[in-house]
Amino acid sequence: MIVIENLIKVYKRGKIEVIAIRDVSLTIEDGAMVMLVGPSGSGKTTFLHLLGGIDRPTAGKIIVNGKNIAMFSDKELTEYRRKEVGIVFQFFNLIPFLTALENVMLPMQFSGMSKEKMKKRAKSLLRMVGMEHREQHYPDEMSGGEQQRVAIAVALANDPPILIADEPTGELDSATGLEIIKLFKKLNEMGKTVIIATHDLRLLSYATQILRIEDGKISIN
Description:
Structural class: alpha/beta
CATH class: Alpha Beta
Strand order of the largest sheet: 6-7-8-3-9-10
Largest sheet: 6 strands, mixed
CATH superfamily: P-loop containing nucleotide triphosphate hydrolases
Number of helices: 6
Distance between the termini: 18 Å
Helix content: 25-40%
Shape: globular
CATH topology: Rossmann fold
Number of strands: 10
Strand content: 25-35%
Order of helices and strands: EEEHEEHEHHHEHEEE
């Protein structure tokens, strides 16, 4: 379970303070399929970065499975990102000089698994996302939809209970984007908590919880 209490994020740009997240409190249950919607600049990415441990809040609590990650040290946040949360970015974030298989193996480097076990798991994940036929291809040899599927496999590498995706269909055509969302839904049905920021209102029908954000304030539908 994720419990957020009085969350605030303020960025300083010179002498100007920008309030990106304004006193947000909410709960996300384990196994939820959450859609976060709102206009550009409303705070969606900031909110996801706070949940993902990429950024730190100015004030408030982010309690994940009973632990307030807002109080974590840098080392603890690194472990959190490695074990507890998988993050899928809009622009895929694959390493261009690594194959699909090598990209998926990369997050496992510090897991203690042998190379053979890492390879076996990476192959299994690529098969799960329908990309086993591309395991020896490099990112620039794949379509946008294929790269996004590989990126999802990368996010799943260490079997995190939480998946966070920032506009995962933003760079894809409508049909491919829908396939990606169906893949997220499948992962949700397997027990993952999935939190997706999106502009695509067609995707809301897949959600168990809808969060609307505007000017840093979140309302729950």
